[in-house]
Design a protein that fits this description.
The protein is 71% helix and 3% strand. By secondary structure, the protein is an all-alpha fold. A two-stranded antiparallel ribbon has the order 1-2. α14 packs antiparallel against α20 and α16 runs parallel beside α20.
Length: 708
């Protein structure tokens, strides 16, 4: 039932439900008509649906400015009213939620436009053109669920979106569920999807426990009411620890922090636009948003902040070391995302909520650019190695239909060792990719410089060890991005695919150019002298906001480290470019044990495999074979139930039915037969005999009467 009373002033704010409705309408149109109307219709509808959500988000931004940043709650439906629990489906429009709306819908729309061009080729390479519409249905659903997550006015509505994006990530990571990550038939992609789903279920258990505990101690899940209890000191310390740590467990799953980060690199199994959407603008940012939204919870006890900041900082450095040893162009960016999420979690853990959100926004710009750029690189190499459609005209390369190289091995267009010299082949992709690289490396004046330096400055004031850890992570970030650029774009082509690479279509290049511009200019939204972005969030954060003062020493130091790392990467990879595909990595020669560890992800996945997955599989096998099959099926079902039933039926059939019941019936029959035989003596058929018995009867009667 629609609520009769609202707390919003109407007008533009009443449009907020459409941030969810538009993507849902888009997916429904494609679901009903997409297959019949073709790729252009599908891509256009999906992109317009996401673009319409962005238009509403922009309108809400201006309306909120006109409202002087005052939060507005827009009730929509009555939802759950049970006892003390009263939860309505209500949208919260404040500076934090609108910031996330703009990021999700804005970056999401660019990714939709890019995907319209990218998936045209991808579905052909995977030999499944009919899946084109399915991809955009999932993509619109992802945007809708993320919008629910960031716009909810209570933790339960947030959790609905939280679970929704988990489902969408499962569907999109395993989009090519019948293939392996290298494109060959197999189950590798479906395994990656299950890995992401299960890791997030572990984190979701933590978030659920946080929700239960929150309702237990506050009797509410609505943000304002819950935060009032924390700010007034009405929540016991044990409950604060429990709620914060349970939430942190949820964050480690959704935002890929230690120990649940392992799913995110495997998310590369999905098509490249999926990687960009998950890693840049949607799912992985949910954990950072949750901590920022719950600032009164995490700021209640300083030690809680220390735990969160430490996990974020350690994750940032740990993932950065792994990125150095990867050869898959998307895997480098995947571990980079884990590392940058560590920066964000460390920032919000330290109480630098504006700095963490600022880095979330700038990271969305340049990481979306890098992932989409990597997709452009991959597609360029794939089109060069294995041309199809319009690319195949006049092509005489002798590869087979499934994209093997001249030696019969599966050709991997994502392996940076198969690239080289691409800056001349795909110049638009190269220059836009460079913008993203410089932003991620933290070079002035690119966006990453401003946001990352704010975090480093806050870390210096919060904890020297955390500052040192994050600084080392920033150094490695610049190094592995330099390594990637030298391997991919410089030197000579190391494969026929790189030699014959083709620039991507315009539909893919336009989003790259827009994101490149944002990666250059995005940092000025929170320029150190004005802090516009921080003051914008202050309307929501209140006294939990503090402006990070510019620290020249930190800025100069981080810039020097970044430039030194890029120079070192040139010394190792650029000065003497790689010549062949099989040539050993220079770091492998110089630091064999360390490089092996980085390449093997420090064997943590193997440790998880041996310590958790294999014991779990053995337990599952024991439960399936011994408990379920041998005990439950063979013994209980067949011995106890089946054989017991058969034994009971035999007992009832023989001793009871045949012996007792039939015996009684047969005895009665024999008695009837005997009495009938005895009585048949009297039935002779002779009148004289009947007269004699009548005479005897009369005598007996008369005798009886006389004697009485």
């Amino acid at each position: 039932m629609l609520l009769s009373e609202t707390t919003n002033p109407g007008g533009v704010f009443s449009l907020v439900p459409w941030i969810v409705f538009f993507p849902v309408i888009g997916l429904l149109i494609n679901l009903l008509f997409g297959k019949r109307l073709g790729e252009k219709f599908i891509g256009t509808v999906a992109s317009l649906a996401s673009g319409a959500a962005f238009a509403v988000s922009a309108a809400l931004f201006f309306a909120l400015q006109a409202n002087h940043g005052h939060p507005v709650v827009v009730p929509f439906l009555e939802w759950i009213h049970i006892g003390d629990l009263a939860i309505d489906w209500a949208f919260r429009v404040d500076t934090l939620s609108v910031t996330m709306m703009l990021v999700v819908s804005g970056i999401g729309t660019l990714i939709h436009i890019y995907a319209a061009g990218y998936m045209h080729y991808d579905v052909q390479y995977k030999e499944d053109p009919a899946s084109y519409v399915r991809f955009f249905i999932y993509l619109n659903l992802f945007i809708a669920m993320m919008m629910i997550l960031i716009s909810g006015d209570n933790y339960l509505m947030l959790f609905v979106g939280w679970e929704g994006v988990g489902l969408c990530s499962f569907l999109l990571i395993g989009f090519w569920f019948n293939r392996s990550p290298d494109g060959t038939p197999g189950t590798g992609n479906s395994y990656a999807a299950k890995k992401a789903f299960i890791a997030n279920r572990v984190g979701d258990f933590g978030f659920l426990m946080a929700i239960f505990t929150t309702f237990w101690v506050t009797h509410s899940l609505q943000f304002d009411e819950v935060f009032h209890h924390f700010e007034e000191g009405l929540v016991p310390e044990w409950a604060i620890w429990a709620i914060a740590l349970f939430m942190l467990l949820g964050v480690t799953g959704k935002s890929a922090q230690i120990p649940l980060y392992v799913w995110l690199p495997d998310a590369m199994a999905g098509p490249t636009p999926v990687s960009a959407l998950i890693h840049a603008a949607t799912m992985v940012t949910a954990g950072v948003y949750l901590i920022t939204r719950s600032a009164p919870v995490f700021s209640a006890i300083p030690e809680v902040q220390g735990v969160v900041a430490t996990i974020g900082a350690v994750t940032a450095l740990f993932a950065a070391t792994i990125a150095v040893g990867q050869f898959d162009i998307k895997k480098v960016l995947a571990y980079s995302t884990v590392s940058q999420l560590g920066f964000m979690v460390a920032a919000v853990g330290m109480g630098a909520y504006a700095a963490g959100m600022f880095h979330l926004v700038t990271h969305a710009f340049f990481k979306a650019l890098l992932f989409l750029g990597s997709g452009s690189v991959i597609l360029a190499v794939e089109r060069g190695h294995h041309p199809i459609g319009e690319d195949a005209h006049g092509h005489d390369h002798h590869d087979d239909h499934h994209g093997h190289d001249d030696h019969g091995h599966a050709f991997d267009p994502q392996d940076m060792r198969n690239m080289g010299g691409l800056r001349h082949k795909i110049p638009w992709t190269f220059w836009t990719y460079m913008m993203g690289t410089l932003a991620l490396a933290g070079i002035p004046i690119w966006a990453g410089f401003f946001s990352k330096d704010e975090i480093l400055t806050d870390a210096l004031h919060f904890s020297l060890p955390i500052y040192i850890i994050l600084t080392l992570a920033a150094f490695l970030t610049a190094f592995y991005m330099g390594r990637q650029v030298w391997l991919v774009f410089f030197g000579e082509p190391r494969s026929h695919g790189a030699e014959a690479a083709k620039e991507s279509p315009r539909a893919m290049l336009i989003p790259l150019v827009v994101l490149a511009a944002l990666s250059v200019l995005g940092g000025f939204m929170n320029f150190p002298t004005t802090h516009q972005f921080g003051h914008w969030l202050e309307y929501t954060l209140g006294h939990f906001y503090h402006a990070t003062q510019f620290n020249a020493n930190v800025a100069l130091g981080s810039t020097a480290f970044a430039l030194a790392a890029i120079y070192l990467s040139w010394l190792v990879y650029g000065q003497k470019p790689r010549q062949t595909v099989k040539e050993a990595d220079p770091l492998e020669k110089a630091l064999p044990g360390i490089f092996e560890g980085m390449q093997a992800k420090w064997w943590l996945d193997d440790i998880y495999e041996e310590a958790i997955i294999k014991p779990y599989q053995r337990l599952a096998a024991f439960l399936a074979d011994v408990v379920d099959w041998r005990f439950w099926h063979d013994w209980f079902h067949e011995r106890v139930l089946r054989d017991g039933f058969f034994g009971l039926t035999r007992f009832l059939a023989n001793p009871v039915d045949l012996g007792v019941i039939d015996g009684i019936a047969n005895g009665l029959a024999r008695a009837a037969q005997g009495s009938a035989a005895a009585l048949s003596i009297l039935q002779t058929g002779f009148v004289r005999n009947y007269a004699l018995w009548v005479f005897v009867g009369v005598v007996l009667i008369l005798g009886t009467l006389i004697f009485r």
